[in-house]
UniProtKB/TrEMBL annotation:
Name of the protein this chain belongs to: Uncharacterized protein
PANTHER family: CYTOCHROME P450 (PTHR24296)
A Pfam entry, by short name: p450
Family annotation (InterPro entries): Cyt_P450 (IPR001128), Cyt_P450_E_grp-I (IPR002401), Cyt_P450_sf (IPR036396)
Recorded coiled-coil stretches: none
Organism per entry: Brassica napus
Keywords: Heme, Iron, Metal-binding, Monooxygenase, Oxidoreductase
Gene3D superfamilies in the record: Cytochrome P450 (1.10.630.10)
Length: 172
């Protein structure tokens, strides 16, 4: 490993992070436009958490009142962001390469070196996994008594958990 290699890896992560974040935020804003009641709940939650109940044009003051502690209290916002990522993952199709021979949960045999593609976009709308309303935008599915409840990374795979012996880089 040399400085050029390290620089290229860091740059690659920065570019990938910028693009996926921009795409996710675009889908989030789209979902808010299509769901004004969700938008109202998020605005109400932000105002409640930051104690800014009056409408203001002071963007700097509003931004300064949002710190890590305030973000931790924004349960509905977290749910709406997770719901957006479930329906519109930043990386809708991904691949893994088997490092060893293995058997997938459905019984399919995978040999060392085989590529396995999975479509997180499709998985996010499967009724088998998410219920009959899987295609609907419902941030409430992430809440229990108003508190955000994370799902298993094997169910909510927007962040592409590695499964079984499959790894992001082929060991061939």
């Amino acid at each position: 490993m040399n400085d050029k290699y390290l620089r290229d890896i860091i740059l690659s992560f920065m570019i990938a992070g910028k693009d996926t974040t921009a795409a996710s935020l675009s889908w989030f804003l789209y979902m808010l436009c299509k769901n004004p009641l969700v938008q109202e709940k998020i605005v109400r939650e932000i105002r409640d958490v930051t104690s800014s109940h009056e409408e203001t044009t002071d963007v700097k003051g509003s931004v300064e009142s949002i710190d890590e502690e305030a973000l931790d209290q924004m349960q509905y916002l977290h749910a709406a962001l997770s719901e957006t990522l479930r329906l519109y993952p930043a990386v809708p199709v991904d691949t893994r390469c088997a490092e060893n021979d293995d058997v997938l949960p459905d019984g399919h045999r995978v040999k060392r070196g085989d590529n396995v593609y999975y479509i997180s976009y499709a998985i996010g709308t499967m009724t088998y996994i998410w219920g009959q309303q899987a295609e609907e935008f419902k941030p409430e599915r992430w809440l229990k008594d108003g508190v955000f409840q994370p799902e298993s990374p094997f169910k909510f795979i927007s962040f592409h958990v590695c499964i079984l012996s499959l790894s992001p880089r082929c060991g061939c």
